[in-house]
Amino acid sequence: MIFRLLRPARYPLTLVRGDILAPFAVAFTIMFFSVGLLAAERPNSFADLAERLSPSVVNISTTTIVNGGPGAEMPQFPPGSPFEEFFKNFGDNNRQRKAQSLGSGFIIDAEGIVVTNHHVIENAEEIRVILADETSFTAKVLGQDKKTDIAVLKIEPGDAKLAAVAFGDSDRLRVGDWVLAIGNPFGLGGTVTAGIVSARGRDIGNGPYDDFIQTDASINRGNSGGPLFNTDGKVIGINTAIYSQSGGSVGIGFAISSNLASRVASQLVEFGQTRRGWLGVFIQEVTPDIAESLGLDEASGALVSSVNENSPAAKGGVQPGDVILKFDNKIISRMRDLPRIVAETDIGTKVSVDLFRQGSSLTLTITLGELEKAELVGLAGGEKSSETSKESFGSLGFSVQALTPQLAGEMGFDEEKTGIVVTEVVPGSPADEKNLQVGDILRRFGQRPVKGLAELAKDIEDAEEGGRSGVLILIERDGRERFLQIGFAKK
Q: What pLDDT shows up at residue 388?
């Protein structure tokens, strides 16, 4: 699948003639789009809605300084040709020129607050907001957030009266609801298209907070940052991306949900940056194999593989191996739900976290912190004895040994490193298929710390004799920790 960020096409200012911009670079072919709509029957016409909403939608024009060389390839001429020097100078890497990009946006406050995509104004030297009546204003950036691809601009309207629109509730959207897109595709400002909500909650790999609405409303390059309206005239999405192999619309567009966008926009207006909630865990998907190993009825929730030191999660009692099923009474159906829900929760809020731990359910109360970049800290597992014997688990396909200072030095670890280390992985074995590697350190068996070779061997023996299909282990590799579910070889 090819997701194209429909970055606004850029144009050299020297090629502008009248209202028509000749394209200069077609390389930017990925763009992010929007969609949305509350339940409503198809109207006989969208004309009244389009007439009312169009004044609130703006064109965004940006000017960026770019280097000249790579953009213009020099034709091949015979050595010594008089044209060779001319084109060499024309394509000189050291020369700079101004290029222009076009996108869309919408007014959310009559005082001059405009919302658009981050990628529309990224690296811009100058930003101009152009109203439907072609009145133009210089804009400044109040704040921008790359993770959600949202930016907020401020213009000084003076005597001009601006028409603002409000965000709607994207959680009320249903697949099949009508939506209306207004924007500036290919520089054709004031373009109106209609469609339906094709899907909700799409994850297209854009970032940790993906929650896109999919629509079949026609959106193209230049629609980026524009609104998608429901039939009540509320913004329920921000146009951001399309799926396309050609760069043009094929009826699959994506919009940032309004509930996510409105929160980010409010923070950018108030603080100039986002302020997200922070839990402090490293998580992974609960696969069917992992769910079976843990005794979960279904593969849902977020499996905690590590807990950041001194994080809200650590202080609240969250442990590696816990499966988070609910956060603040919101169900975590998939792993990717958790980062978005945590980020949307107010800092300092006391939230309930429902966990599954060692066959039992429990609820913790955690005071949420503010998101920060902290190094992921490994758990203090392993024993510190001088045990040197090996254990081999033929049905799993790997061998382990206690990590002594001598062995640590041989394997390139710090000599103070402790734990149970993998010393052999049998090619083609279940362990090899799950990418267990020599040098991996075993930190947990299931949801319990690995304390020694004897206990680990007994746990694996009990699991195999008990008829379990495999084992769940937490490994540490290159300072990062991750759970692996390794099945027993079939006899």
A: 45
Report CA-CA distances (Å) from 13 to 188, 241, 279: 17, 26, 47
CB burial of 155-178 (b: ≥16 within 10 Å; e: otherwise) equals beeeeeebeebebbebeebeeebb
Collapsing DSSP to helix, strand or coil, 211 comes out as coil
Residues 6+ apart with CB under 8 A from 48: none
Contact 229, 37 (CB under 8 A): yes
State the total domains in the chain. Answer: 3
pTM > 0.70: no
Confirm whether 60 is domain-assigned: yes
Question: Is 224 an active-site residue?
Answer: yes
Select which of 34, 101, 198, 224 is catalytic: 224
Q: What span, in angstroms and rounded, lies between the C-alpha atoms of 100 and 97?
A: 10
**Amino acid identity for residue 410 in this structure:** E
Q: Name the active-site residue from 34, 61, 119, 305.
A: 119
Annotated catalytic residue, options 61, 104, 118, 149: 149
Of 235, 255, 274, the one marking the end of a domain is 274
**Active-site residue flag, 249:** no
Look at residue 40 and tell me whether its pLDDT is greater than 90: no
In the prediction, which pLDDT does 96 show?
Answer: 63
- Per-residue DSSP letters for 274-329? ---EE--EEEEE--HHHHHHHT-SSS-SEEEEEE-TTSHHHHHT--TT-EEEEETT
> Looking at this protein, which amino acid is placed at residue 349?
T
pLDDT in tens, 98-132: 777 789 999 999 999 999 999 999 888 899 999 99
Other beta carbons less than 10 A from residue 112's beta carbon: 19
Structure-block tokens of residue 370: 């503010």
Q: What pairs with residue 67 in β-bridges?
A: 96
What are the pLDDT digits (tens) for 367-409?
A: 998 873 432 223 322 223 333 457 888 889 898 988 877 677 7
**Active site annotation includes 119:** yes
Q: Are 230 and 330 in the same domain?
A: no
Domain boundary among 274, 300, 320: 274
Bridge-based pairing of strands 281-285 and 20-21 is: unpaired
What integer pLDDT is reported at residue 392 of this predicted model? 83
In contact, 463 and 395? CB cutoff 8 Å: no
User: Is 384 inside a domain boundary?
Assistant: no
Q: Is 406 exposed, middle or buried (0-12, 13-18, 19+ CB in 10 A)?
A: exposed
